[in-house]
From TrEMBL:
<dbReference type="InterPro" id="IPR008254">
    <property type="entry name" value="Flavodoxin/NO_synth"/>
</dbReference>
<dbReference type="InterPro" id="IPR005025">
    <property type="entry name" value="FMN_Rdtase-like_dom"/>
</dbReference>
<dbReference type="InterPro" id="IPR001226">
    <property type="entry name" value="Flavodoxin_CS"/>
</dbReference>
<dbReference type="GO" id="GO:0016491">
    <property type="term" value="F:oxidoreductase activity"/>
</dbReference>
<dbReference type="InterPro" id="IPR029039">
    <property type="entry name" value="Flavoprotein-like_sf"/>
</dbReference>
<protein>
    <submittedName>
        <fullName>Flavodoxin family protein</fullName>
    </submittedName>
</protein>
<dbReference type="Pfam" id="PF03358">
    <property type="entry name" value="FMN_red"/>
</dbReference>
<keyword id="KW-0288">FMN</keyword>
<feature type="domain" description="Flavodoxin-like">
    <location>
        <begin position="10"/>
        <end position="158"/>
    </location>
</feature>
<dbReference type="GO" id="GO:0009055">
    <property type="term" value="F:electron transfer activity"/>
</dbReference>
<dbReference type="GO" id="GO:0010181">
    <property type="term" value="F:FMN binding"/>
</dbReference>
<keyword id="KW-0285">Flavoprotein</keyword>
Length: 158
């Protein structure tokens, strides 16, 4: 008789104002859910996210639009609320990013990375930057991002 192994936990934290990052987040969730036998995935709006979500997860994907060359205010608010409360736990979780941007996205990536380094968390995947209207290709890349992190988690790669 084999003992069932406990599922790993993948958290997706995102904000969307006009829906584009939301489309990516749902695609990331769909991709991660392909590994649902071994990984449980939670999709959480940044405004609702809590320290408990970070403590629950084994890995995390953050999604945000780029606003004024930065992450959205709501994702920043999530970081503001959880950064110091998380400090004693030395989270060290693997993470990835997905960004929706008009024409850039690099500022949001850079500034998220700066903050996440301090939690501390470790970046394990290249960020997905979807520029302009969300396309089928962006959605396919987002699904792949979710599945890759979930798969790596279940195989113990990260
Ligand atoms: C206030 C505001 C500021 C923005 N600043 C940038 C920016 O600095 N760089 C960029 O590439 N796009 C910028 N955009 C475009 C958004 O990143 C883009 O429309 C994105 O798809 C919105 O995502 P959402 O639908 O998830 O809210 C900005 C949009 C708004 C509303």
């Amino acid at each position: 008789m084999t003992t069932p192994t406990a599922k790993k936990h993948l958290l997706i934290v995102y904000h969307t104002q006009s829906g584009n990052t939301g489309q990516l987040a749902e695609a990331v969730w769909r991709g991660a859910s392909l590994e649902s036998e071994s990984v449980e995935t939670r999709l959480v709006r940044a405004a609702d996210g809590q320290l408990e979500d970070l403590l629950w997860c084994d890995a995390v994907l953050f999604g945000t639009p780029e606003n004024f060359g930065y992450m959205s205010g709501m994702l920043k608010d999530f970081f503001d609320r959880t950064y110091y409360p998380a400090e004693p736990y030395e989270l060290n979780r693997p993470y990835g990013l997905f960004i929706s941007a008009g024409n850039d996205g690099t500022g949001a990536v850079r500034e998220c990375d700066r903050i996440l380094l301090g939690y501390p968390m470790k970046k394990v995947l290249e960020p997905l930057i979807a520029r302009g209207e969300i396309t089928a290709e962006h959605l396919a890349s987002a699904e792949e991002l979710g599945q890759t992190l979930a798969c790596g988690l279940s195989m113990g790669v990260f």
